[in-house]
Amino acid sequence: MSKTLTPSATFVTVRDSKGRKFLEVAGAAYDKALLTKEEAQRVNEAGGLSELIANHIAQHRHEVPPVLKLVTSGIKVAGAKRFVADKDSLKEANVGWTGENFNQFFLGKVEENVQDGIIAIHRLEKRSVDAPIRKELGQEREEIALAHFFDLLKKQSKGQEGHLLVNGYANIAYIKDKNGNFWAVGALWHSYYRYWSVYARSVGHPRGWRAGDQVLSSDC
After folding, report:
1. Structural domains counted in the chain
2. CA–CA distance, 218 with 114 (Å, rounded to integer)
3. What is the pLDDT of residues 131-163, one digit of tens each?
């Protein structure tokens, strides 16, 4: 059944600031083309432009569904006066395998005076690369400390149920490396080997994360 619009509904037209913005974009593209008079005439007389614009509007008029769904918030994690990503911390968290990127950019990283923190967890509702995920989290919430990440790993070092997934799906966190660059750090529980695998992927990696993976973020 079609929806009946109420008389009070208001719509954006070309006279509105958003409508004028659309015309500015179209005008800028026209100017950038540097058409000759003959070319401009052919472009102006060519059919299909209105259909092209209508299709563009139809495709983009609706809100894009969010990538993330909040699972839980208010998770307390312990800080550390001095945390070092080394063999001892890996052993304590029962990390049995680490990827090459993690070894190169995170092993030996030192975090000083890390305060206790609060973490939130979101579930990926659909497959996604990192950019949309980070955008939804926001710059003020996307980063967590490596010490906080390892605190959660330690709490489930035997694969017991907890906030982290232990069913083969990834637990993802955006963490800065020794050089201050962001990486997507993932942890998977291997039920056969009974240990955590931890790895780091570039935040520009073209391979997306799976629906069902979950993302950790600051909840402060």
Report:
1. 2
2. 13
3. 999 999 999 999 999 999 999 999 999 999 999
- Contacts of residue 210, defined as CB under 8 A and 6 or more positions apart, other chains included, come to 124, 127, 169, 170
Rounded CA gap, 185 and 202, in Å?
9
Whether residue 97 sits in one domain with residue 195: yes
Same domain? For 138 and 173 the reply is: yes
Q: What is the CA radius of gyration of the chain?
A: 25
User: What would the two tokens of residue 49 be?
Assistant: 């432009």
Q: What is the pLDDT of residues 36-63, one digit of tens each?
A: 988 888 888 888 888 888 878 777 776 7
The verdict on 167 and 184 lying in the same domain is: yes
Distances (CA, A) of 1 to 61, 155, 188: 20, 52, 47
**Whether residues 91 and 118 fall in one domain:** yes
